[in-house]
Amino acid sequence: MDILKRFYFIYILYMKSQKLRLAHPDKIPIIVKNNKTKETMKYLVQERISLCQFLLILRKKINLSEEEGLYIYANDHVLIDMTFPMIEIYNRHKNEKDGLLYLTITGENVFG
Question: Fold for domain 2-109?
């Protein structure tokens, strides 16, 4: 029964992500997990912005100090180039099962 529930949950996520993409064709659904706080945040961002611009949005949201650097990983292990547009990152690293882009952020003290 657990396999059936899991399949149903993935199917529901896939349908929701497809509905979002149809309603907002110029936006990308993103799930961001903070490694420090274990908090999960949902975003719907423009596909033409770069990862660097998205990073600025994240820094404001999670209140990082100026001394901390922010690192973003796709699928928990791939470090992404900051100059890539979000649509390219989405096309390369989205979860094929549910159509969402999962990013993990980690803050690290870079000045001592």
Answer: Ubiquitin-like (UB roll) (3.10.20)
Report which residue type is found at 112: G
* CB of 41 closer than 8 Å to CB of 34: yes
- pLDDT tens digit string along 21-38? 899 999 999 999 988 888
What is the DSSP code (8-state) at residue 90?
H
Q: Where are the alpha helices (DSSP H) in 24-65?
A: 51-62
Q: How many whole angstroms separate alpha carbon 95 and alpha carbon 98?
A: 6
pTM for this entry: 0.83
How far is Cα 26 from Cα 24, in angstroms, rounded to an integer?
Answer: 6
At 46 the pLDDT is 93
Within 1-42, where are the H helices? 2-23
Tens of pLDDT, residues 98-107: 889 999 998 8
